[in-house]
Design goal:
Layout (H helix, E strand, L loop, with lengths): L1 H47 L6 H13 L7 E3 L4 H9 L1 E4 L2 E6 L2 E7 L4 H4 L7 E5 L2 E2 L5 H8 L6 E7 L5 E7 L1 E4 L5 E4 L6 E5 L7 H15 L4 E5 L8 H8 L8 E6 L6 E5 L10 E6 L6 H11 L4 E4 L7 E7 L5 E10 L9 E2 L5 E2 L10 E3 L5 E3 L8 E2 L7 H8 L2 H12 L10 H14 L7 H13 L6 H8 L1 H7 L1 H7 L1 H27 L3 H10 L2 H7 L4
Helix pairs in contact: 6-7, 7-8, 10-16, 11-16
């Protein structure tokens, strides 16, 4: 009987083992079979297609096609984008210190990094990049500009720019090792207060050291009573750096984040391994829909441990972890290998890419679960980190949105700075800037179609072919000049909000990125709300359920 039992036990043990072996054999066979098919198709098309095929472009199109069936974070990184990986993993690259964007269909310098060759050699924000070496630059090859400008430190690159209405200017820029600043601004703000403000823009390899240094400097300067950590617009970066930064506030031994791959046994837990630099100081973290990935790890850890208040709007909702695998010929593969979970056990991933990119709704009770923070507050999985205090960003007028969209405030700042470099920023007044800006709009024949005029035009279009409405159409058309004449009155009525953005742009020309941020904080609704919350002990503790 014992022998029979032993045989039965061995049989049951063998079933899962052999099942696993055959499952893997099937997988390896499928991989081998389809590689063979893919290779044959690739060769046949490359050699026999009626038109000549570029072998590299053809194969890489196939790679992109494969990866497009997965999530957007699993990508093939070719030789041209190798520097992008260096920025993320090392926090530095060889370049000239510029950030670019598209303005009026032109590749335009949007920001100059302080202290690097582009700034030192005289490039300006607003300069249009016309040519790099022998390559003419346009919006169509925008993605190539970074590859053309970056290179080994110590080498040079010729950049031809167009500035205003002048002829083109050529700069021979010396490439340097650019150290990416994850913290573009920090300090006590308001300046006479004990509130520290830290703007964190990324989580590259150097971010943890930068953050530690900043906190040490603030402690040395004076006593810190409260901290506002600004993660708005921060798209994330390295997971271990997010853990390091969280450790500055989370108590030693507490869980910061967990990751779980396809294999249920591949769970990793990341704990705070050091005593925090600030364990009890009041903390508010500012977030918005641009806060993603590593930003959400930090916000999730602080929220789940009730270490501080998350204020702003809901975050992006990226709960996936990527691993970068080097391939041959200076290429790499960035692949999603795990999901991450906050200390309470929630995954905040918004889109389920395994289910045809379906967005997980807060109201889908099958997918959204509730969890508890240390103080028994209820928080939810899926769809990002919901703030403890929901504070929307400023509601701006349609007029301001139109001015921003057309780049007119940006252009005015370029024009003003080029004509007034002898002035200092402190000499500028709101009234003077606003008056000159209105003159600038007239000179550039600015036309604003108000929401009312749009509706009137829609109505006119809908009745244009109806003869019975000809009399009504004539009457309605008489309103159009009147509506247009209201435009400049509308500019005056929105003077306050327009002036805020004028000063931000002008500040960035005279004082750099730090000047822009400081100028913005004075009118930043979310920042000002955070300051008021620090001053209300009862409300602060009530939100964290400490009463």
């Amino acid at each position: 009987m014992k022998k029979k039992s032993l045989i039965i036990l061995i049989v049951f043990l063998l079933i899962p083992i052999t099942g696993f072996i055959y499952s893997n054999r099937d997988l390896y066979f499928e991989i081998s079979k389809n590689i063979d098919i893919f290779t044959r198709v690739y060769k046949e098309i490359t050699f026999n297609y009626v038109d000549e095929i570029n072998p590299e472009q053809f194969l890489r199109a196939g790679i992109r096609g494969m990866l497009n069936t997965l999530d957007p974070y699993t990508v093939f990184i070719d030789e041209k984008r190798k520097d992008d990986i260096d920025v993320i993993t090392n926090g530095k690259y060889g370049g000239v210190g510029i950030s670019i964007g598209i303005r009026d269909n032109n590749v335009t310098i949007m920001e100059l990094m302080d202290g690097y060759s582009a700034q030192r050699q005289g490039l300006r924000v607003g300069d249009i990049i016309y040519q790099v070496e022998s390559t003419i630059i346009s919006k169509d090859n925008f993605d190539d500009v970074s590859y053309l400008v970056k290179g080994e430190p110590g080498t040079s690159v010729n950049v031809k720019i167009i500035r205003g209405t002048s002829d083109s200017l050529t700069f021979n820029l010396i490439r340097e090792e650019i150290i990416v600043k994850n913290i573009p601004f920090y300090g006590f703000y308001p300046e006479n207060s004990n509130n520290a403000y830290i703007k964190l823009n990324g989580f590259t390899r150097s971010a943890g050291d930068e953050f530690r240094k900043v906190l040490s400097e603030l402690k040395k300067e004076k006593e810190v009573h409260s901290i506002i950590l600004d993660l708005r617009g921060n798209p994330g970066g390295l997971l271990d750096v997010a853990v390091d930064i969280s450790n500055k506030f989370i108590k030693k031994g507490e869980l910061i984040v967990s990751t779980k791959g396809r294999d249920s046994n591949s769970v990793k837990h990341f704990y705070a391994t050091q005593e925090p630099m600030f364990s009890d100081t009041k903390l508010i973290v500012l977030v918005n829909e641009g806060s993603a990935s590593a930003s959400e790890i930090v916000a999730g850890a602080i929220q789940d441990h009730d270490r501080g208040i998350i204020l702003g709007t809901k975050t992006f909702g990226k709960g996936l972890v990527q691993t970068i695998t080097p391939l041959s010929y200076n290429t790499s593969l960035k692949i999603t290998t795990a999901k991450y979970f906050t200390p309470s056990g929630r995954c905040i991933q918004k889109i389920d890419y395994s289910q045809k990119n379906s967005v997980i709704s807060k109201y889908d009770t099958l997918l959204v679960n509730s969890f508890s923070t240390d103080n028994k507050r209820r928080v939810y999985s899926s769809g990002g980190i919901a703030p403890d205090s929901l504070v929307e960003e400023g509601n701006y007028s349609e007029l301001l949105k139109d001015l921003m969209a057309k780049g007119l405030i940006f252009k005015f700042a370029n024009d003003y700075f080029s004509k007034n470099q002898n002035l200092t920023y402190d000499q500028l007044t709101i009234g003077q800037l606003f008056t000159q800006f209105k003159d600038f709009l007239i000179k550039n024949d600015y036309q604003f179609i108000s929401p009312q005029e749009k509706k009137l035009n829609e109505l006119l279009n809908s009745i244009s072919n109806e003869t019975r409405f000809s009399s009504l159409k004539s009457k309605l058309e008489n309103f159009i000049p009147e509506l247009k004449s209201e435009m400049y009155l509308s500019i005056d009525s929105n003077k306050k909000e327009i002036s805020i953005f004028l000063h931000q742009e002008i500040a960035s020309r005279y004082l750099g990125s730090e000047g822009r941020i400081k100028s913005f904080l004075d009118s930043d609704h979310q920042f000002q709300t955070a300051l008021k919350l620090f001053g209300n002990e009862l409300a602060f503790n009530k939100i964290l359920n400490k009463l």
